[in-house]
Amino acid sequence: MRILVINGPNMNLLGSRQPEIYGSATLADIEANLVASFPDVDFAFIQSNSEGAIIDAIQTTDADAIVLNAAAYTHTSLAVADAVAAVDTPVIEVHLSNIYAREEIRRRSLIAPVCRGSICGFGPKVYELAVAACL
Q1: How many C-beta atoms lie closer than 10 Å to residue 113's C-beta?
Q2: Would you say 5 and 71 are in contact if contact means Cβ atoms under 8 Å apart?
Q3: Fewer Cβ neighbours under 10 Å: the N or C end of the chain?
Q4: 79/128 Cα distance (integer angstroms)
């Protein structure tokens, strides 16, 4: 099983960015945990602050599934939603925080309707839950 894990804008700052919301784990911690927890999965990891790079990754992957934390693009990018809708690869949306308990603008996901499922609010565990759902 090949799984592409895509992280959007500002996710490279995990561990130092608003730890009261996002926790203290870094993106490298999350990635290492996935590799250790799922040794039979072939992971590819992408983090980009660029909407276009995220769209390109979705459109060109040969992975069996995608775990996508589009971060702020979740709430603003019809283009990312269109890319998810355009591919046959199943996509699981994840968020470290509970987006439905956050500011009004963060309570709406443009990508959720075109994803296989969404998991939010359980910190780094959301990535493990998403990978398990893909298997």
Answers
A1: 11
A2: no
A3: C
A4: 26
**Are the C-beta atoms of 114 and 86 separated by less than 8 Å?**
no
Angle in degrees, CA 122, 90, 46, rounded to 5: 65
Model confidence pLDDT, tens digit, residues 53-89:
999 999 999 999 999 999 999 999 999 999 999 999 9
- For the stretch 92-110, pLDDT in tens is 999 999 998 887 888 889 9
Specify the DSSP element, H or E, that contains 31. helix 27-37
Dihedral sign from CA coordinates of 122, 12, 58, 3? negative
The per-residue DSSP string of 33-100 comes to HHHHH-TTSEEEEEE-S-HHHHHHHHHH---SEEEEE-TTHHHH-HHHHHHHHH-SS-EEEEESS-GG
Cα–Cα distance measured from residue 75 to residue 58, given in angstroms and rounded to the nearest whole number: 17
CA distance 70 to 7: 6
Cβ burial of 17 (10 Å; 0-12, 13-18, 19+) is: exposed
- Catalytic positions: 22, 95
